[in-house]
Amino acid sequence: AWPGILTAAIFSFTLSWNELLYSLAFVRGEENRLLTNGVMSAFARSDIYFWGPLMAASTLASVPVAL
Q1: Which residues pair with 49 in a beta bridge?
Q2: CA 18/CA 29 separation, integer angstroms
């Protein structure tokens, strides 16, 4: 069973990563970005990260996925 689980995990990661890169490359407007990209652009400036709001927004973004 482990090879099947590992294969499914690799495919899931690859597809998720491709969606993230697609949205970073082709979506230009702030209002059209995915929530994950918008959170990073809103709460990260150069090398300064606002960890409190970043973690709060990430937690709220994961609620619909968990449901």
Answers
A1: 44
A2: 19
What is the distance between the alpha carbons of residues 63 and 35, in angstroms, rounded to a whole number?
12
* Residue indicated by tokens 């689980």: 5
Which residues form the domain of 58? 2-66
The DSSP call for residue 27 is -
Both tokens assigned to 20: 């993230």
Tokens for 31, please give them. 């209002």
pTM over cut 0.70: no
Task: Quote the number of domains for the chain.
Answer: 1
Give residue-wise pLDDT tens across range 17-62: 888 788 778 887 777 777 777 787 788 887 888 899 989 988 998 8
- State the Cα–Cα distance between residues 55 and 48, nearest whole angstrom: 14
What pLDDT shows up at residue 45? 81
